[in-house]
Amino acid sequence: MDLGIAGRTALVCGASKGLGLGCAEALVREGVNVVVVARGADPLQAAAVRLEAVAAGLATPPFVKVVAADITTPEGRAAAFAAHADYDIVVTNAGGPPPGDFRDWDREAWIKAVDANMLTPIELIKATVDGMAARGYGRIVNITSSSVKAPIDILGLSNGARSGLTGFVAGVARTSIAAKGVTINSLLPGSFDTDRLKGTMAGSAKKTGLDVDTVRANRQKSIPAGRFGNPEEFGAICAFLCSMQAGYMTGQNVLADGGAYPGTY
């Protein structure tokens, strides 16, 4: 399927590895120019080499630009918009807050979580949505978490901050921008084989006293698909949400979790 987005330009955050890189690669395969942002310069440059190799295989190679910056800061966002001013696609993504016991989190921990996982996406939406509407096309995809639908006890910081973003998007996605070709959706990953998952399982192992291998095996058994997801298939879902064909989907929370969520709705 031709997604109809070749030649568009995307900002992809947290794109040096994991799910962010999976999204960036899927977009490049569709001929989308990408500006990839992450804090770590070396991993980001390695990601760019991988993306450029994908781009080189296309008849009309899209460009790949690198911005090594902290997107949660005003300076980082300024750098991202200095690299390219008018984005057609924005994929918001930030590393989740650390797991733990809510009794141990002070105000600073909460503010940091909300800033990265709620306020930063809102700032990026605010900076791009009106331009998208004026041009008649825009796709914003927020990578959140399955914990928005089924909270995870040791991820309270994430549960709270990402749920706040979800509530905000539910309102703004249904404003006048919807009639101007702009969609805002959230993509909710379950258990994907990333560094984030490894950290979460290490936290579970510490809490339960089990070894990490046992925690991993038990976690996989709890997923109807019988496995963890991979960033490539996650990226493919993201690319579809950015496509012309997804223009009638907005304000939605798209769950990708191998069937783990047990609810009907």
UniProtKB/TrEMBL annotation:
Pfam families (alphabetical): adh_short_C2
Domain of life from the UniProt record: Bacteria
InterPro entries: NAD(P)-bd_dom_sf, SDR, SDR_fam
Record-linked PANTHER family: 3-OXOACYL-(ACYL-CARRIER-PROTEIN) REDUCTASE (PTHR42879), NADPH-DEPENDENT REDUCTASE BACG (PTHR42879:SF6)
Stated family: Belongs to the short-chain dehydrogenases/reductases (SDR) family.
Protein name: SDR family oxidoreductase
